[in-house]
Amino acid sequence: MAEGQQGNDDPPKQQPGNEATPLEVQTGQAEDVNAAITGLEPPEAPYFRPYMSVEFVVTALGAILVIWSFCWLYVGAFWNPSTRLSNLHVAVLDCDVTPPPASLNASFAPLLPALLPAPLASQLLAGSVWNRSSPLGPRLLHWEPASCGEAGGAGAGCGPREAECVASLASSVLQGETWALLYFPANFTAAYLAWWRDSGVAGAGAGGAGGRKQPPTATYYYARGRDYSTHSYLSSLVLSSLGPALSAALTRQLAASPAAAGGRLEPLFLATGISIAPVDLAPVRNFGQHFASYIFCVLLWLGSSFVVAASYQFKLPTEMALAIDPRVGGGRQVRLRHLAWALLVKGLVAAGFMFLEMVLLCVVLWCLGAGGSGAQWHWSAGQAIAFGWYMSWSFLSVNAVLLHALGPDRFSSASAALLIAQLTSASAIMSQELQNRVFYVGQALPFFYGVRGFRSIFFGTLTDKMWINWLVLTAYNVVFLPLGLLLVVRRVWRNSGRGAQQ
């Protein structure tokens, strides 16, 4: 009986002619491994579900609502930016002064109080940008009066350090404290009086090349590299609207002037008027590089989401051993060693992938800029690679947290939704000042600082705030990298523990 029982427990012998081929053996082993790993992974929703069901209808309606909401966000954010131009701060520096009567001809000096009771720039500004009822007033842009310390102010001039003061205010434009600077020099009124016959003024601004008189000229400082689209709106207002409006106001004033009617003013001035000279502190020689400042962030995000998803889907031999080999799962030290090796290999592969991607992105700029005016590097391409690579670590960690928190089925949708939200709110396509205040949430997301960092490297804007970009990305890395590693370790360790129990 014992022998009979033992014979029943023996595995059945292979019948002649039914031996398994090596290929079948390998295939069977692979299927066993896949089945074991599938059984150890966190349970997901069943593959086959009824198509016409309440669950499908709810899911479809939810998808439509999400897509519709993003349409509202994206299209609504840029629907009519001109309605929020008053959020843009523009500094106005009025250094204009009236020439002293001693510098005028004796016959013209008595006319000056009636002709110009105040410096010309002060009069024009009082009737336009400082006038709340004017269409060019505070309702259009947020005009801010600027001064040069104790010296300066409307009609008081800016003192002997005017050039230094203007340079300081222009630097503040470059560093993002204001969007632009409108500067009226001390000789603005003098240049205007030079067009009056027998005024005796023939100094600065009156004599140009070939002895031609120059119109009174203000200077408009801006930095297009900070935000190309925003400055397109702003510059069109200042150069195309404010300049002609000031000239028209001066023409109306001259029409009621007896001195002008008496032929003292040269008629050519009525055709030239006043002028506003633009000075771009951070020019964008190639629009494509401005576009690259935010499309680089998009591509790095897509690359990081691919790496995270691939690392989740494809297993290393050590991960498979942890999942299916009870002897490996049962030894704590062996499990720790296998887990550490898997994390090290996949971490190095992810870092290498993102570094190569960032290098290839900069290669595009090198190639496109080789034949023309060249790519712009206020700093260097190496700094762009280092910054983009460091930012990609934040993207990797955030995507890893999304994947392990929501699961592989929902990860792609969540990652795409966060990508769109960041692109919309990162002051990438349009500045946040021209969007609804809900988009200020972008200042808490890494995209905002990535776009700003690339524009600092490319065009030299906001360079004094570059340390903030590094600091915020470091904060993301410090918080989300350990959190992502914790979730990965938890998943692998749980699977290895389940493997030990089988």
From TrEMBL:
Residue span of region Disordered: 1-24
Domain DUF3533: 65-479
Keywords of this entry: Membrane, Transmembrane, Transmembrane helix
GO annotation, cellular component aspect: membrane
Its membrane topology: Multi-pass membrane protein
InterPro entries per UniProt: DUF3533, T7SS_ABC-Transporter
TM helices/strands, residue ranges: 56-79, 291-312, 348-372, 384-405, 467-489
Subcellular location: Membrane
Any coiled-coil regions, as ranges: none
Pfam families for the chain: DUF3533
Name of the featured protein: DUF3533 domain-containing protein
